[in-house]
Amino acid sequence: MKHMPALFVGHGSPMLALEHNEKTETLRKLGEDIVREFGKPEGIAVVSAHWFTRGTFVNKAAAPEQIYDMYGFPPELYRVRYPVPGSPELASRVAALTGAKETEDWGVDHGVWTVLLHLFPQADIPVATLSTNGLASPEKLYGMGRELAALRNEGYLLLASGNIVHNLRAIEWDNPKGSPQADRFDAFIRDALTRGDHATVLRYAEHPDASYAVPTPDHFLPLLPILGAAEGESPVFFNTVRELGALSATGVVYGL
Q1: pTM here?
Q2: Which residue from 17, 97, 185, 219 has the least number of CB within 10 angstroms?
Q3: Between vectors from CA 214 to CA 115 and to CA 201, what angle results, nearest 5°?
Q4: Residues 83-109: pLDDT tens digits?
């Protein structure tokens, strides 16, 4: 069995679910490339920025709830359905590898389903969602990725959904691109990843623009398990754009 990829997707606004543009076309093609090259994954272990917890949890529900954890958007967004099955087997494997606690709480939140419906629109690949442990250090989350790496040899895809830059308080509604701070921080992270310098990424808070780009850690931290699961591999970046001033859509895939 081929070594499945590991990828981080910058999900941005939940309106991604309704968009048909260069970003979503890139995601669609990425999903097709994965299936063509590796076959359809046995399942997908997804680290979610929106399930930010004290401790590490994994959803074991056979039929996980689709969560509409966003407010004030057009009614059609709440009518989007992505009825993906869960995977108790994958959840059990994740728990065995990482010590995560299995639970039927949570489900598939909008940071996950808005991405997956473009990557794998048939909703036929089982998903086990992992929480982001807000009590864990960057090093601990990176180490969790090392433990999850074994899944890549078992036919499972590793995915994380978040944002390299995510500052909702600094959103600029009339700016379709990025602020100088967002551009600098995003370039800093991409440069470190290109050099394989994961240690610098783990020390992201030392960057002068970190307090702007990562005012809260929830959306940045999901990147770190993906890096831990892909040590020594070369990154391929996609959707390297900033939006609304303070959001980054940058994604990175390893092993493809």
Answers
A1: 0.95
A2: 97
A3: 85
A4: 999 999 999 999 999 999 999 999 999
Contact in structure between 224 and 145 (CB atoms under 8 Å): yes
DSSP string covering 13-44, please? SGGGGG--SHHHHHHHHHHHHHHHHH-S-SEE
pLDDT tens-digit readout, 189-199: 999 999 999 99
Residues in the chain, overall count: 256
Helix (H) or strand (E) holding 90: helix 88-98
For residue 254, the cross-strand partners are: 6, 235
How far is Cα 82 from Cα 187, in angstroms, rounded to an integer? 33
How far, in Å, CA of 81 to CA of 86, rounded? Answer: 15
Enumerate the β-bridge partners of residue 129.
46
Q: Which residue has the tokens 């949890």?
A: 57
Closest Cα partner for 49 from 7, 110, 94?
Answer: 110
Q: Which of 58, 51, 41 is nearest to 126 (CA)?
A: 41
